[in-house]
Design a protein that fits this description.
The chain contains nine helices and seven strands, in the order H-E-H-H-H-E-H-E-H-E-E-E-H-H-E-H. The longest helix has 15 residues. It is 49% helix and 12% strand. It has a domain of 141 residues: P-loop containing nucleotide triphosphate hydrolases (Rossmann fold, 3-Layer(aba) Sandwich), CATH 3.40.50.300. With 210 residues, it is mainly alpha-helical. The structure holds BIS(adenosine)-5'-pentaphosphate (AP5), magnesium ion and zinc ion. Magnesium ion binds next to helix 1.
């Protein structure tokens, strides 16, 4: 799943994961989980995440390789927020070909920049299960409490306007080239991410069904 910060990758990946019974693999979630547990990896990643910069490729690639070797990935998976650089995409190609797995679709979620900033500055995330909310567009039933698990909602440290703008720059410089990369491989599908979440999901379903 490709798309700028706030495009709705996590929101849609959650639905895809449930609907198609495949694991949702988000490198951002893996880093945040590591940080909560105070691991060296989490602390290292935080230095970059807080500045809105990408974590170095070497740190990311090994984590994904480990994750994809888990047996729950045998019947498919949805990658959210990986790859994000050409080096990561090349590494993914190498690991998948070793495993005899092929990418079916790369979904490029498109959203204008002003929409992204509005979405991220009012996002709330569940600290326990990772569910995603928005104070205006998708509020929880009880303020500050996750509908799914009762966990406490928090605002991500990188969701301040200043850091969001830095993340958008990183996206434009380092990740956007992947649109051309996967387009050349005939794998890229554009999805209009500015519609309602249900409509976006319908477009994804239709695309995946071919
Ligand atoms: P990551 O966690 O992946 O963040 P991101 O890519 O910046 O994307 P977001 O999670 O912010 O947005 P999203 O597209 O998932 O949107 P969401 O569904 O939440 O990465 C964070 C950091 O980790 C990076 O900056 C980097 O430092 C590091 N990192 C991670 N992966 C890396 C990698 N591969 N390489 C290097 N570094 C890496 O939706 C956003 C909001 O909008 C929510 O409030 C939601 O409720 C709302 N919303 C969603 N869809 C809609 C809709 N259709 N209409 C209205 N509101 C909507
Ligand atoms: Mg996300
Ligand atoms: Zn929760």
């Amino acid at each position: 799943m490709l798309g700028p910060p706030g495009a709705g990758k996590g929101t849609q990946a959650e639905r895809i994961s449930i609907s198609y019974s495949v694991p949702h693999i988000s490198t951002g979630d893996i880093f945040r989980e590591n940080l909560r547990q105070g691991t060296a990896l989490g602390l290292k990643a935080k230095e970059y995440m807080d500045r809105g910069e990408l974590v170095p490729d070497a740190l990311v690639i090994d984590i994904v390789k480990d994750r994809l070797e888990n047996p729950d990935c045998r019947d498919g998976f949805i990658l959210d927020g990986f790859p994000r650089t050409v080096a990561q995409a090349d590494a993914l190609k190498g690991m998948l070909s070793e495993m005899g797995i092929y990418i079916d679709h790369v979904l490029n979620i498109q959203v204008p920049q002003d929409v992204v900033v509005k979405r991220l500055t009012a996002r709330r995330t569940c600290g326990s299960c990772g569910s995603i909310y928005h104070l205006l567009y998708d509020p929880p039933r009880v303020e500050g409490v996750c509908d799914d698990c009762g966990g406490e909602l928090y605002r991500r440290d990188d969701d301040s306007e200043e850091t969001v703008l830095a993340r958008l720059e990183e996206y434009a410089g380092k990740t956007q080239p992947l649109i051309e990369y996967y387009s050349r491989e005939g794998l890229l599908w554009d999805i209009d991410g500015s519609a309602e979440p249900d409509e976006v999901f319908e477009e994804i379903r239709a695309t995946v069904a071919g």
